[in-house]
User: Fold these one by one.
Assistant:
Number 1:
Amino acid sequence: MTPPLGDIAHIGHAQLFTPDLDASVAFFTDFLGLTVNGQDGDTVYLRTFDDYEHHSLVLTAREQPGLGRLALRTSSEEALRRRVEAIEAAGGTGKWTEDEPGLGRLYVTTDPDGHEHALYWESEHYQAPRALKPSLKNQPQAKPNRGVGVRRLDHINFLAADVLANAEWQEQLLGARPTEQIRLDSGKIAARWLTYTDKSYDVVYTSDWTGSEGSAAPHRLRHRHPRGHPARRRPRHRHRRLHRDGAAQARHPADVLPLRLRTRRQPHRTLQPAHPSRPRSRLAAHHLDRGGAQEGAGLGLEDHRVLPHARHAARAALI
């Protein structure tokens, strides 16, 4: 049985491996505006200014770049226990550890492709130092006056050898819901978007044509804004100038990774802007299934009758 939506409250943080730790830290602080909030040997903890937890991103020195741990905070201690029991009842394995500052126990396990996931509940609220104290009490930190000024970690894009197996693992054991997918003409699922909450998506699995699995798979940085987003109009060019005018260019593969970072508050986060279909890709504008959408059932409006839930929980009344 699919677990109830809500056991996973939100993405906590992600870990990236980098062969050049200093250059990567400089890129995320100088160009993207994150703040360093601790270091332990070859691991640096950074945070976005709107995150209430200790860190949003972990950079760890490693010979090859890649995506390490994805941490997910549960909605309660009971929700954490339910997810751990579900994983182990399905034959999965994991271990308990306390190896990150500001967090309690983490249950570390892997998806079918080998990507490491850590589930946790206990978390300390971030206390900003005097220099970063916000003027409003409902904000955890003042926005740094440098770089893009990333507000939060938005979603993670995994490359996977078997998209369907990994997506179903998220759905059946963690309670994620699919909101969109790409189905090829062959019937194979080439990508699937999933959410733990009522936003458009938190995790994406995309087919990895190299056949690599886990953290060995190559990754891409997805930094874009939805159509109509205020940051899409002019500041985009400003961000490019920040990168161009810097003394060190962040062109190492370690800086080309699968994170999407949100820079400003989006009024309607549950709404995913519709993009017009393009004749060359044979898409149906009203359909959610992007590839081969006219050749079989997908996750579009016509197929809500076969789903146990609406695409967007917040918009269920409109369907």
Number 2:
Amino acid sequence: MTAGPVDVTRLPARTIRPSFRFRACHPAVVGASRGKRMLRSAASLLDVTATPRPVRIAGVLVGLQGAVGVAIAVGLFVAAARGRTGPVPILATGIWLASFGAILLAVGASLVRGRHGARTPAIVAQLLLLGVCWYAAGPSSQPAYGVPAAAFCVAVLALLFCPPTLLWTTGCDRG
């Protein structure tokens, strides 16, 4: 729709308040006169921007972390079913890993689909996993596991904080 400017005050309330966040930095906002914002078109207001490539890549990587967590949990369940024991309760660890892995799978899928709300859980998960990586590399004396996993987490964080992602997050990437 390329019609001329649309007065937002004359649109139905549902059209004025779309479900996504509308920011003042949107280029469709051309000015204010007596508190009324004029838009180039209602279609530009309702247009949802494409998800940037770094967000989609981060979503795939977070989903991969979730899949690895679920796979390890399945291995722990099999070990628990065979009656193996260890220094840690295997079944409880498997349940925790399966839960965390499922959450990461959902967050990764949401990032790939471009859901803004999935970025924060992905960042929190990476920060938590960085603590696990530090423990694996340091006190556990397993740097072969901890260092590559930490590099993976840092790469995901870099993707989630790169300029295109930040512009997409704030809604200022349009135009």
Number 3:
Amino acid sequence: MDALALVGFKPVNSTDKVTAGGHLITAGDAVDAAHDQGYVTSACYSPILNSSIGIGFLKNGSARLGETLLLTSPLTGLDVQVQVVSAHFVDPEGTVFVINLTAVTALGGPSARVDHFNGVTVTECPDWALASVTARRGQSGQTADKARAMLGFALPDIGLCTGDGSLSAFGSVPSNG
């Protein structure tokens, strides 16, 4: 079946740029309309993957994950080898809970900062931190269970707070399941 499916694309060479509007050709095929396999609809830089990425439509795309294609745009002279990947790019199975967290202060530095504004001194409290917990659609129960196991207490509902003396949590959005 040649139905178009939404998939992701990342360059084989991480320094190459994926651009929207380019067309996808199976490796080794002629670059012409008869061999067009799909196109990239959106592209941007991913700081997590440290490369350019794109999403678009590809014939039989979900069965072609891992395949290398030519992303080409004869109008701009673009020719980039791209790999077909999940359109989720990072953690498509939703299995990662916490990854490589580095402690920073509220203003993003490694240590407390002191700023002065028109006679007012603002000092960061580095022993206080704020973290956000979010869940993929349909996985709020699983995420809540993991947070409970990690924190030692259940996450509170919207407008409420809870804690264990050393940690506190407040609910800012309703659970949507």
